[in-house]
Amino acid sequence: MNPTSAAVAGAVTFLWLGMVLAISFLEAPLKFRAPGVTVPVGLGIGRIVFRALNLAEAVLAVLALAAVSVGGPPAAVLALGAVAAVTLAGQLLFVRPRLNRRSDAVLAGEDPALRRSRAHLYYVALELVKVAALLALGCAVLATTA
């Protein structure tokens, strides 16, 4: 990889990683602990925040993949970029629709305890995979410049 594309790829990757860590592992669980935040209010906020996060992630994924593709990157760099992007795609195409249906029901007045969903667990598991892939990708990109 050339130094410029490696620098861009590293910056984009670590920005993406930071956003995922801040929103998924800090904001999302903590908002429900705030005084006065009910489950419906928290879900409404969460939907807006995650819609924005996922849009930003999609843009960052395209930028990261474009940057790592320049200049014949090592296979590991391409593979890690693909893992992160495919994981995001899986979240958006398969898990988020299930989460949206569940939050629609709660926002329509259904008791959240009536229908437990494993979709959140799947989303968190995929977030952990994505975090690991992004961390490894960022480190691998930086190693190409050494």
Question: How is this structure best described in words?
Answer:
This protein has 146 residues and is mostly helical. It has one domain. It is 82% helix and 0% strand. The chain contains four helices and no strands. The chain has helices at residues 3-31, 39-69, 75-107, 119-144. Helix 1 runs antiparallel to helix 4 (119-144), helix 2 (39-69) packs antiparallel against helix 3 (75-107) and helix 3 packs antiparallel against helix 4. The longest helix has 33 residues, at 75-107. The model has no long low-confidence stretch (mean pLDDT 93).
Write out key terms for the chains shown.
82% helix; 4 helices; 146 residues
Low-confidence segments: none
* Arithmetic mean pLDDT: 93
Question: What's the number of domains?
Answer: 1
How much of the sequence lies in strands comes to under 5%
Termini, distance in Å? 11 Å
Shape designation: elongated
Which secondary-structure class do the elements indicate?
mainly alpha
Number of helices: 4
* Major beta-sheet overview: none
**Rounded to an integer, what's the Rg over CA atoms?**
17 Å
Helix content range of the residues, please?
A: over 70%
- H/E series: HHHH
Number of strands: 0
Organism: Streptomyces griseoaurantiacus
Transmembrane segments: 6-27, 48-69, 75-95, 121-143
Keywords: Membrane, Transmembrane, Transmembrane helix
Protein name: Transmembrane protein
Offer a concise description of the structure:
The chain is mainly α.
